Amino acid sequence: xxxxxxxxxxxxxxxxxxxxxxQETEVVQAELDRDLSQAxxxxxxxxxxxxxxxxxxxxxxxxxxxxxxxxPTYREIPRDVRxxxxxxxxxxxxxxxxxxxxxxxxxxxxxxxxxxEGVIGSLADINYSFMGFQExxxxxxxxKYGPQLVGSLKQQGVNALIxxxx
Length: 166
Hints:
By secondary structure, this protein is an alpha/beta fold.
């Protein structure tokens, strides 16, 4: 199934967005103050994953009405999540594969394996998901959701955060 990332943009915007050049940038990273085998690691995905039985899906209805807006909220995903608990909501991604194996977007099971092997110290109890495409939601991330997320990471004693872009 093809995914049209520009589907909900006004037609007059589409050409400009499609012609926007790909920007090559350096990987964003910070030095870790300890050996990875001693670090508590969390993962953050932009795939729009949520717990379908206990969390609200991401708000795509508002985005359909206002194509430059993206739901700026995030969802907490526990380390013991199982495949059958996962839902996904995102207008700019084909989410089909997430329902087969959510680890393609949020590699919790792979990180638990690295924990067992001693490659990482531990996987955080709570990991995170947000819906990428935050054009108008960016200020909300800077002022509200980003600081909330950082506070939660600090409370868990997380030393390293892996961004798993979808």
